[in-house]
Design brief:
Belongs to the zinc-containing alcohol dehydrogenase family. This protein is α/β, with parallel strands linked by helices. The protein has ten helices and 18 strands. The protein has helices at residues 41-47, 95-98, 159-179, 195-207, 219-227, 241-249, 263-272, 295-300, 315-327, 346-355, and strands at residues 2-8, 16-22, 29-38, 57-58, 62-70, 82-85, 122-123, 129-132, 142-146, 150-152, 188-191, 212-216, 232-235, 253-258, 273-281, 304-307, 337-342, 360-364. The protein binds nicotinamide-adenine-dinucleotide and zinc ion (ZN) (2 copies).
Length: 367
């Protein structure tokens, strides 16, 4: 089947609309007609060359769509089902999968940008392989993914919301509920208030955290953070940031989340939490970045540094849970959606991310 997608051929170069051959959905594969995709900074890390990846590649990993065809071994999905896509298709067999921790799967091929059997899902007009980012490649009209990467969501969840559940929301809300296990009345600080940080803010409001401090360099992002539940906002270049957080939280926050991936903000994170606090690393740095901490402070104050992959979530459990919270009005995910653009404007959507203003840009893939 021939589809159109936007292909990255070199880091830093514009993406190019390209006709692509999509593999048939045999075995446990599912073909999804894509309807919406968010544009996440993890796509930009690759487009900027900060993460190495096999090129050419169709980026995009925060997507939703409607199942169009299923392979004979598919058990949980049928044509017509609305799905949100998981960018970490678990193998189902490894030690972590068997213990219910799909976000730690060691058998996934998603991080090689391949199908479970090692093929790429896409080829160009000459038959040469084109990689689909994290095995999805949602900056295209359709995708073929393993059954484990497509999770049914109710039909009345709008496509743009289902798309954001595929990455930013599950990561941000999961960081709060699963990784940090925030309790009502805990204090929290969020450093970096883009799409992921905004989702952390909604998760904190849902959990009943108080106070909630948002930190960013963009005044526009801080204004959005207030609307999403932050009780206090501080600028990231405030030289007295640590003292201000300590004053607001009575000697340091119970939880601090870094949602940028910069060494300076990662290194500062433990100093924002008080004794016994959690410093949660959600932002993903460029390859090769190192950060250092004061180990005496960590040991003496009983602070914990927690890594957070995909909000410590199991998509088959957490996507429907989040969709249910959205439908009940408890999780106002509409508040996360910013500009809506057609696929042809992908490079402009990357520009929105680089500018660090507004809310998450979502591509409407039906246009
Ligand atoms: N852990 C995971 O599973 C996971 C999942 C998705 C995304 N991510 C990562 O999360 C990070 C954020 O993604 P996003 O899509 O929200 O990005 P984004 O670009 O939308 O947001 C980043 C925000 O950080 C702010 N910022 C930059 N430098 C700052 C500083 N020094 N101090 C304070 N604020 C600063 C920017 O103004 C912007 O608002 C990326 O590294 C991405 O790769 C991780
Ligand atoms: Zn993402
Ligand atoms: Zn596994």
């Amino acid at each position: 089947m021939t589809i159109h997608g936007r292909v990255l051929t070199a880091a830093g170069a514009p993406t190019v609309e390209t006709p692509l051959e999509l593999v048939e959905p045999d075995g446990d594969l599912v073909r999804v007609r894509l309807t919406a995709s968010g544009v996440c900074h993890s796509d930009l890390h690759v487009a900027n060359g900060e993460w190495s990846a096999p090129l050419p590649m169709v980026l995009g990993h925060e997507g939703a769509g409607v199942v169009e065809a299923v392979g004979p071994q598919v058990r949980t999905l049928r044509p017509g089902d609305h799905v949100a896509l998981s960018w970490y298709a678990q193998c189902g067999h490894c030690r972590r999968c068997r213990s219910g921790r799909a976000w730690l799967c060691t058998g996934t091929r998603a991080t090689s940008h391949e199908l479970p059997d090692g093929r790429t899902s896409l080829r160009d007009a000459h038959g040469a392989p084109v990689h689909a980012f994290l095995g999805l490649g949602t900056f295209a009209e359709a995708a073929v993914v393993p059954e484990a990467a497509a999770v049914a969501v109710p039909d009345d969840v709008p496509a743009r919301i289902a798309a954001l559940i595929g990455c930013a929301v599950t990561t941000g809300v999961g960081a709060v509920l699963n990784t940090a296990q925030v309790r009502a009345g805990d204090s929290a600080v969020v450093v970096g208030c883009g799409g992921v940080g905004q989702s952390i803010l909604l998760g904190l409001a849902l959990a009943g955290a108080h106070p909630i401090i948002a930190v960013d360099l963009s005044d526009d992002r801080l204004a959005h953070a207030r609307a999403l539940g932050a009780t206090h906002v501080l600028r990231g270049d405030d030289p007295d940031l640590v003292a201000h957080v300590a004053a607001i939280t009575d000697d340091g926050a119970d939880h601090a989340f870094e949602a940028i991936g910069r060494p300076e903000t990662i290194e500062q994170l433990p100093s924002l939490v008080g004794r016994g606090g959690n410093a949660v690393l959600v932002g993903m740095p460029a390859e090769g970045v190192r950060a250092s901490f004061d180990p005496f402070d960590l040991a003496d104050a009983g602070k914990r540094v927690l890594g957070c992959n995909y909000g410590s979530s199991v998509p088959a459990v957490d996507f429907p849970r989040i969709a249910g919270l959205y439908r009940s009005g408890r999780l106002p995910l509409d508040a996360l959606v910013g500009a809506v653009r057609p696929l042809a404007e992908l490079d402009a959507a990357f520009g929105d991310l680089r500018d660090a203003v507004g809310l998450r840009t979502v591509l409407d893939l039906t246009k």
